[in-house]
Amino acid sequence: MNSQTLSRDCRNARELLSLSLDGELDALARLKLDRHLSDCAPCRLHGAWVEAITHALRSAPLERPSILILPRFP
Question: 14: domain range?
Answer without folding.
Answer: 8-56
